[in-house]
Amino acid sequence: MTVKTQWFYIVWRAGLFLLLWWTLTDGDTSSWWFGIPVILLATTVSITMIPPIMLVWSEILRFIPFFLLHSLLGGIDVARRVFQPKMTIAPDLFKYPMRLAPGLPQVLMANTVGLLPGTLSTGIEHNVLTVHALDKSADVLAELEAVERSVARMFGRPLDDSNEVD
C-alpha cells in the first residue's frame, strides 16, 4: 500500500469520526475544543487496531445484494420455524477451514454466516470457523464457500488453498 493510499484511509476514517462527533453534538461548534482531540485519538486507535485495508469497491457493491438476500432468507427461515414449531430440526456443528487471510476478512465472513438460513458462527480458532446449523442435511458447506468467495473478492485477495475445503 502506498503512502498516498495510507493517508487517504487515515483522512477517510478521521472524516467518519468527525461526522459522528458532529452528529452526536448536533453540530454545536463549542464542543470542538474537546471533539478534535477525541477525533484524533479515535482515528489513531482505529488505525492501530485495524490497519488500512485495500477494498475492491465494485465487489462491495456486488456483496450488498448478496448480503440483503441472505438476510431476508434468514429472516424467513426464522419466521417459518416460529410458525411451524413441529418442524423437525437436526442440529450439527460444522468445522470449516477458512482460506481467507486472518483478521478482518475472517471476522466479516463469520458475521455474515449468521445471516444464512439456519446457521450461526460459534467461533474461529486457527483459521477454522465453527458453525452451528439447525439442519445438518442442508448444504451448509456450499453456502459457506459462497460467502468466503464473496468476502475474498471484496478484499481483493485470493483464497489460501493450503486450507482447501473438502
Structure summarized in a few sentences:
This protein is mostly helical and 166 residues long. The chain has two domains: 3-49, no CATH class; 57-163, no CATH class.
What's the arrangement of secondary structure elements?
Layout: H1 3-24, H2 32-49, H3 57-83, E1 92-97, H4 104-113, E2 119-125, E3 128-133, H5 140-155
Antiparallel strand pairs: 1-3, 2-3
Helix pairs in contact: 1-2, 3-5, 4-5
Report the portion of residues in β strands. Answer: 5-15%
Total helical elements: 5
Structural class: mainly alpha
Rg, alpha carbons? 20 Å
Count the beta strands.
3
Query: What composes the largest sheet?
Result: 3 strands, antiparallel
What does this structure look like?
By secondary structure, the protein is mostly helical. It folds into 2 domains: 3-49, no CATH class; 57-163, no CATH class. 56% of the residues lie in helices and 11% in strands. The protein is built from 5 helices and 3 strands; from the N terminus they run αααβαββα. It has helices at residues 3-24, 32-49, 57-83, 104-113, 140-155; strands at residues 92-97, 119-125, 128-133. A 3-stranded antiparallel beta sheet has the order 1-3-2, covered by helices on one side. A hairpin with a 2-residue loop joins β2 (119-125) and β3. The two termini are 34 Å apart.
